[in-house]
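REQUEST FORM: STRUCTURE PREDICTION
Request ID: SP-0412
Submitted by: Lab K.M.
Chain count: 1
Length (residues): 301
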Amino acid sequence: MRFGGHQTFAIRDGWLFKGLRLVLEDPARLGDADLADWLGVGRNMAKAIHHWLVATGLAEKDPTWGKRTRILRPTELGTLVWRRDRYFLMPGTWWAVHVRLINCPEHAYSWNWFFNRFSAARFERPVCVEALRRHLVSVGSRMPAQRTLERDVGCLLGSYAVSMPSKLGDPEDAMDCPLRELALLVHSRQTGFYHLNRGFKPIPYEIFGYASTTGQEFGRGNSLTPSIDRSLTELTHGLNAPGRIFGLTAEALYELVSGYESQGLARLDGNAGERILRIDPKPGLQWMVAYYDAVDLAEVA
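STATUS: Completed
RESULT:
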């Protein structure tokens, strides 16, 4: 488990593009003492960009440079995103980033815990910090400093929470994390409470397939094509399942998959009193290719 590699900085607009470009075009610069100057950001921000490239699954350490190297190479996902949406303009790209963050507990454990284990739909920040601390005690983990946990939770909430009511001309708006566009979390400026949006969200079919597949692939530790025939209960409540990842209630998830069925994309069958969702099995990366192809076709139409 790792906490704090982000240096308290949530992902900012343009950061992943800058970092991924360097990974693909001049990776040796990632080990340069002047990396911050090359990226055009502060020193701690450069460390944060490096962290987010790995935590989002866009890049990984390049072992050819040694075990302790900071030089990265692109993953298959990173290469695909660079080829199809290098400026990170499509909502599906950010949903994929979100999916990978939750499936990367070794670099973003708080993200994995929050969407899989934290059950409160309305809460204050200290309550969230204390819940994470108790969880770490229960699993026998080495306990980070309290300040480290507070900063990690603060970065997590700041990554997703849209503050209401919004303030016109607020300088922080220019530093909003693009993950806020996913509408997963709302923060009340008046009460200080956070609210997890567990209602219906228009998740593209291909992104739903990507989330369903990625959770199983990482759980198995291999890239074999997993089964997509899964019960709605498992899809709602299973670890790293779409219901957890996208913050959906059972009713919201049923509405979503029923829409897929009405479009002929998936099939809902009954089995021993349980509804089973059946969709074509594909490896995770193929789902993302299908998403970008669908976007291209929609633009042509």
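NOTES: The radius of gyration is 19 Å.
Reviewed by: T.R.
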